[in-house]
């Protein structure tokens, strides 16, 4: 007889609204008129890789962008058939599987191209690949000025089909002038090589697709905006919140004036204070960098200030302003009322890092 152990109800969970995700995909599509490669690396930015891939599969997309073969495998095991594109340079040990599965790498070097060509020859197939060109990111790709000199050799590799040219923007949300120059550089590389030889031409992630003219491209690679956050001002109101990070109050007490709260006693009450203890902490990805930064949480329709330091599993907030507050009350750490961008700013980081920092202890609850 097997003994069943009841699952502990989660103290912290992340609600993921799949209809908001699909709405945001529509915004991406309308904003640039390009084909779409939703980026689902890092567990779809912490939103749940399999669930997000399944939710987007039928939405007329061309590729999913992933970081490595482990993520590609998970998408396939979830039964999703959409083509898979590997966003960065590949590790040599990953390549045989990429060829066998017909996933699409982007090539940054002749060595990679030669190896893929050899593996494809061994497998008796022709592998579709994209060429990555470095127009300023400095992370991968053929340096733009060098690529034309390599093109003949790349095209001589009979087991590769060069079907795309891609590049990446490092400062689309910070430096318009540089980014415009990058678009121009990408266009001139296309002109020099003959753009029509590439079925897919892509440069933009979220900021590039929202804020710039993508006429030189026919594919975009949005990540963050699908998850409801605009990296550029002026577009946020078009997007819908996808993830809400939530927890519950586990305890409500009134502390007298002069009482310390949390490790280090950074916060000392200056009056009798009603303090709620909440079941989430940095062990869940609610980062400790939020301590003593004026961070707020949302309870019963109001903002309530975080008190003292975030601990591993618990935080304390001031709920003196909430007469009806009770144990079990739901708390939003970020979501529709507390924007994740606000939390990221207070923590001295970016929304991408907040999303991907949510740990496995946090149950993801998907709603369609
Ligand atoms: C992560 C990534 C993206 C998506 O970027 P967002 O800013 O989240 O839209 C697009 N392209 C590449 C190459 C990436 O690494």
Bound molecules: pyridoxal-5'-phosphate
Helicity range? 25-40%
Radius of gyration, taken over Cα atoms and rounded to an integer in Å: 24 Å
Give the termini distance in whole angstroms: 37 Å
Largest sheet: 7 strands, parallel
> Could you name the ranges where pLDDT drops below 50 across 5 or more consecutive residues?
none
Mean pLDDT, all residues: 97
Structural class: alpha/beta
Alpha plus pi helix count: 11
Number of strands: 19
> What portion of residues belong to β-strands?
15-25%
Q: What is the overall shape?
A: elongated
SSE series: EHEHHEHEHEHEEHEHEHEEEEEEEEEHHE
Structure description:
By secondary structure, the protein is of the alpha/beta class. 29% of the residues lie in helices and 24% in strands. It has helices spanning 18-32, 41-46, 49-57, 69-77, 95-101, 110-123, 147-155, 176-193, 206-211, 340-346, 351-356, and strands spanning 12-17, 35-36, 63-66, 83-86, 104-107, 127-134, 142-143, 160-166, 200-202, 219-220, 243-255, 260-261, 267-268, 273-278, 296-299, 302-307, 315-318, 330-334, 363-367. Strands 3, 4, 5, 6, 7, 8 and 9 form a seven-stranded parallel β-sheet that branches. Helix 4 (69-77) links the parallel strand 3 (63-66) and strand 4. It is elongated. The protein starts with 11 loop residues before the first strand and ends with a strand. The model has no long low-confidence stretch (mean pLDDT 97). Bound molecules: pyridoxal-5'-phosphate (PLP). Pyridoxal-5'-phosphate (PLP) binds next to loops.
């Amino acid at each position: 007889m097997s003994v069943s152990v009841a699952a502990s109800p989660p103290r912290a969970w992340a609600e993921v609204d799949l209809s908001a995700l699909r709405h945001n995909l529509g915004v991406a599509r309308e904003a640039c008129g390009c084909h779409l490669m939703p980026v689902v690396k890092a567990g779809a930015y912490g939103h749940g890789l399999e669930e997000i891939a399944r939710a987007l599969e039928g939405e007329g997309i061309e590729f999913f962008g992933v970081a490595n073969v482990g993520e590609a495998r998970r998408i396939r095991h979830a039964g999703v058939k959409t083509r898979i594109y590997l966003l960065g340079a590949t590790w040599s040990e990953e390549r045989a599987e990429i060829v066998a599965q017909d996933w699409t790498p982007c090539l940054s070097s002749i060595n990679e191209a030669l190896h893929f060509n050899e593996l494809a020859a061994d497998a008796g197939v022709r592998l579709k690949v994209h060429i990555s060109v470095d127009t300023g990111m400095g992370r991968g790709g053929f340096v733009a000025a060098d690529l034309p000199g390599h093109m003949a050799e790349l095209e001589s590799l009979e087991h590769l089909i060069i079907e795309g040219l891609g590049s990446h923007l490092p400062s689309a949300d910070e430096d318009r002038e540089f980014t415009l120059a990058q678009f121009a550089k990408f266009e001139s590389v296309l002109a020099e090589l003959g753009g029509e030889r590439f079925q897919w031409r892509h440069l933009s992630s979220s900021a590039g697709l929202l804020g710039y003219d993508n006429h030189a491209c026919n594919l975009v690679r949005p990540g963050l905006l699908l998850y409801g956050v605009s990296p550029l001002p002026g577009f946020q109101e078009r997007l819908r919140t996808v993830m809400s990070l939530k927890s519950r109050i586990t305890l409500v007490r009134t502390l007298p004036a002069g009482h310390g709260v949390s490790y280090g006693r950074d916060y000392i009450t200056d009056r009798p204070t009603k303090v709620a203890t909440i079941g989430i902490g940095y062990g869940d990805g609610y980062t400790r960098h939020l301590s003593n930064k004026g961070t707020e949480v949302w309870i019963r329709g109001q903002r309530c200030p975080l008190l003292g330091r975030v601990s591993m599993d618990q935080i304390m907030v001031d709920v003196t302003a909430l007469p009806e507050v009770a144990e079990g009350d739901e708390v939003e750490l970020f979501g529709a009322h507390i924007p994740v961008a606000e939390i990221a700013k207070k923590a001295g980081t970016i929304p991408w890092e907040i999303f991907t920092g949510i740990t496995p202890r946090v149950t993801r609850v998907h709603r369609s």
